[in-house]
Amino acid sequence: MEDTGIGKYTRGFGLSFAITSLLSALLVIIKEKNEETILAAMAAATGHHWVTHGAINVILFIVLGWLFSKSNGGRGVNLTANTLMCCIVGAVVVNGLLISGFYLLG
Amino acid sequence: MDNNTLLLIHPALGGLATLAALWVFVDTLNGSEASWSRVKKASIICAVLIWLTYFTGGYWYVRYYYTDKAIIKSGPWPIGHGFFMETKEHVFLMLLLLATYLPIAASNNVSASKSAQKVLLWVSGLIVPVSLSMEGSGAVISIAVKLGLLLKKAQGG
């Protein structure tokens, strides 16, 4: 594997952060568009939809990060530092744009 | 604890977390041998402070916000809830993960790896403006409540 100069947990959890952030933004739109079903179910699960949303994010981040870090025969997901940075920056920007755009236009 | 005290602690912790992220960014840019142990400590402090911000703000939001929400929605700045609070509460969930990731990024052998330093610079550099936007949104929400209360008083409510 290419020596990326960054550890397997940094690569694994970095990719996990990017994926979880995008899924979190999509979940915002999906739950708000389905108030009677998904939003209500999320609210019923913990008492508040936002608490459930946060719990889903944290669990997904940990599980995906662990899986990516242990993948590739235990050497971790194969990503260069530049690709990882693009994923992280892209996820932050898209998360912000999707959520703010949804509430601005909604 | 009084809910107004809790409401003051929440942005104070967030402000301190922003400073910790800025500390990581500047010390990583500085990049001297003495920097790296400080960077690791500051990244952990940043993550802990963001989690404390989440718990204090989250508790207040779930427990007390509904009264402020009603005031904002019936006041002259309903956008304080419809855009600023809704965006803030959901973008914060991403910020929580980004701050949790900061000590993981700092756990590399950053002194020997330019790549690891770049990742650390980007992650800490992203936390600062996102955190500041959270603080700014909180200020707008507070003003929206104040304007809602003033309108209510002017109407004899």
Shape of chain B, please? elongated
Please provide the count of β strands of chain A. 0
Amino- and carboxy-terminal Cα gap of chain B: 28 Å
Helix residue percentage of chain B: over 70%
The separation of the N and C termini of chain A measures 46 Å
User: What low-confidence regions of chain B span 5 or more consecutive residues with pLDDT below 50?
Assistant: none
Assembly type of the chains comes to heterodimer
Rg of chain A (CA only): 16 Å
Count interface residues per chain for the largest interface. A-B, 37 and 33 residues
- Please tally the helical runs of chain A, counting DSSP H or I stretches of 4 or more residues: 4
Characterize the structure shown.
The complex is a heterodimer of chains A (106) and B (157). Chain A has helices spanning 8-33, 35-46, 49-70, 81-105. Chain A is an all-alpha fold. The model of chain A has no long low-confidence stretch (mean pLDDT 95). The longest helix of chain B has 41 residues, at 114-154. In chain B, helix 2 packs parallel to helix 4 (114-154). Chain B is mainly alpha-helical. The two termini of chain B are 28 Å apart. Chain B is built from four helices and no strands. The A-B interface holds A 4-7, 9-10, 13-14, 17, 20-21, 24-25, 28, 47-48, 50-51, 53-54, 57-58, 61, 80-81, 84-85, 88-89, 91-92, 95-96, 99-100, 103-104 and B 54, 58, 61-62, 82-83, 86-87, 89-91, 93-94, 96-98, 100-101, 104-105, 107-109, 113-116, 118-119, 122-123, 126, 130.
